[in-house]
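Quick log. Single chain, no ligands specified.
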Amino acid sequence: MKIVFLLSIVLAELLWGGEAVKFGQLCIGNANNRKRISDTWGQGHYGAPRGSRVHNGLDVACADGAVVYAPFDVKLNGKVIVYTDPKKAAINNGINLSGEGLCFKLFYVKPDSVSGEVKKGQRLGTMLPMQSVYPGITSHIHVQMCNKSDPTKYF
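-> predicted structure:
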């Protein structure tokens, strides 16, 4: 009986009180994953207005050309095509990832590879040149959960 009780406490701690998943550093030069707040192109928080739609991700500041890192041990699950507009071809790349029980996408990243596994802190790729498409924007990685839920709690 004591063992069952102890196991139920441990399970409850894992399900409700355990350490939440947090993203490690995504971009060189931004150790704390500083978010894009507001610029002439809009705001970077989840749910920010985007004309007739809302922003389905969270923007983490990252300089054009910067190295992008794995936030934790991840599996690479293929390339992401962000846009259909050929005028945005310079930033039309990203990667599908999974790890720590999460499924998410990183937009505006040229991945070094689109399959395999990468350990926390290892290089995933390079930030694409946002300024060439959106002059004056705070260059950023767009983090979007596969189910389009709010990723903010992971930062």
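DSSP finds one helix and 13 strands in the chain.
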